[in-house]
């Protein structure tokens, strides 16, 4: 089972992909979110080319767990993805994934320019790996 993860930003979207066993997440690419039709087509093509069974989308919750306007925007995009792609799509709490990605890239001593180029993809890896770890440690499957 292959799973694709999306870290939806306002302009760019980080994409990660699981291995075939669903154990590890690898950064795949960064997509532009606009124009929306091109973005949706790109996600659909990635899902088809990599034989993806499910898509995980990072859901930005506030620190208290509530959903703000950014989360509503993500949920709106999830509905559009469900309508356009026809795969199971689940959301996953992405709190601090971008901060964790930034910390990792700083520790790797990457320049600001290089960090900007890969931050979204690394954040998608954090989202997907968290989801995969949950699946491997839980007898129940989230939906």
Set down the secondary structure blueprint.
Layout: E1 2-8, E2 12-18, E3 25-32, H1 36-49, E4 52-59, H2 69-85, E5 88-93, H3 97-107, H4 112-137
Parallel strand pairs: 1-4, 4-5
Antiparallel strand pairs: 1-2, 2-3
Helix pairs in contact: 1-2, 3-4
Helical segment tally?
Answer: 4
Summarize the main sheet: 5 strands, mixed
What portion of the residues fall into strands of 2 or more residues? 25-35%
CATH topology title: Nucleotidyltransferase, domain 5
Q: Using the CA coordinates, give the radius of gyration.
A: 14 Å
Distance between the termini: 15 Å
Question: Can you give the mean pLDDT?
Answer: 86
Assembly context of the chains: single chain
* CATH C-level class: Alpha Beta
Q: What ranges have pLDDT less than 50 throughout 5 or more consecutive residues?
A: none
Strand order of the largest sheet: 3-2-1-4-5
CATH superfamily: YqgF/RNase H-like domain
Count of DSSP E strands?
5
Taken together, the total number of domains comes to 1
**CATH architecture, please?**
2-Layer Sandwich
- Shape verdict: globular
Structural category is: alpha/beta
